Amino acid sequence: MVWDPWLIVSQIVCLQCLYYLALGLLMALLVGTRVPRLTLLYLFDFATLTPRTTTGWCVIAAFLLAAAAGAAFMLYVIERAKKCLDFAATLYIIHLFICIVYGGWPASVTWWVVNIAGLAIMSLLGEYLCIRRELKEIPISRLRASVFMLLTDWDYRKGRVQKFN
């Protein structure tokens, strides 16, 4: 495989967009029903990740479920188990920078615990899913039949091998 920086950057952007799409949908489902107005505050401000309120638990659940969804996205965007940790760490580092720009340095222990747990879920589940795909058996029954037909003089009309005289 050739090193292609444009492919890597496009995979990072695609994975980041899919992650925020899943996070936004989960926030709308879990948090949007509990608050009068859902804003970017719930995605990027560390103060919303709190175990003291029911809404805070819904935000935490949305982040952890989005990490699981991110692992599923990795199966299709990244496709390689050995790259899952790198892409998951990149996603969470970019998320950290966005959070710093949006609301300052995350001073909440809960924010760090949830995001490190999300990183672990995304990378480990992503690796597991990719490994399962990589180790899936390749069906060779059709391959054997096609090789047999190429190596012999198969008569399609009669459905048998012709004998050479």
From TrEMBL:
It comes from the Eukaryota. The chain crosses the membrane at residues 12-34, 54-78, 85-105, 111-131. It is found in: Golgi apparatus membrane. InterPro entries: Integral_membrane_SYS1-rel (IPR019185). Pfam families: SYS1 (PF09801). It is a multi-pass membrane protein. Belongs to the SYS1 family. The keyword Kinase does not apply. This is Protein SYS1 homolog. The keyword Nucleus does not apply. GO terms for biological process: Golgi to endosome transport; Golgi to plasma membrane protein transport; protein localization to Golgi apparatus. Keywords: Golgi apparatus, Membrane, Protein transport, Transmembrane, Transmembrane helix, Transport. Its main location: Golgi. GO terms for cellular component: cytosol; Golgi membrane; trans-Golgi network.
